[in-house]
Amino acid sequence: MSPTSVSFKSLDELSLEGELDLPEEAVASVVLCHPHPKMGGTMTAPLLLALRDELTRRRWGVLRFNFRGIGGSEGESSAGELETEDAAGALDLMRERRPDLPLAIAGWSFGGAVAVRVAAHDEALTACAAIAPAVRAKPGVTGGLPAPESVGTGRPLLVVCGANDRVVDPADCRSWAGGVEAASYVEISGANHFFWARYSTLCRTVGDFLESARSPQR
Description:
Elements: E1 4-9, E2 15-21, E3 28-33, H1 46-57, E4 60-65, H2 83-97, E5 103-108, H3 110-119, E6 128-131, E7 157-162, H4 170-178, E8 183-188, H5 199-214
Parallel strand pairs: 3-4, 3-5, 5-6, 6-7, 7-8
Antiparallel strand pairs: 1-2, 2-4
Helix pairs in contact: 1-5, 2-3
């Protein structure tokens, strides 16, 4: 199945580009947020494509998109604050396309922090998965994650990090997740920030979490 090119509006009315994979008889859908725009992150990042493949195999609809200022998306990049408007617009598109499906959000690194910020204010989401999220704020780079107590809504949240990550400190991820209601933390042995040679483990971890959040009785 080839992805369908889509365009949609951010909440502040910028035109953004994306790619949508929507299997027949989809059981749920998810929006994927890419890593840092100023460090080469786009919707075609190999890790996001691997996640897409895993989730479409499980019959999930998957929307990947370029944040503002990347590829054919309008606007200029920020440290993640404005990108929440982009991710919220992507969620609106999925709700418009398939309002009958449970909807989740996930992201990697910079995109993981964006996903958490959006999920903290969107109570209709079934779950959020943050892969090696940028925990600490870095001026001009990332706004980091919100305070753990501001995310305590009870919505399932997965934080997953590589044990050998040198970009995001696994201890920071573990500590932050420990302060969030209904959050779980998974550390993947031997994995770095890019999860090289650990894609299958990462994708299975995220896929199993999203499936469990969709069908908590299972």
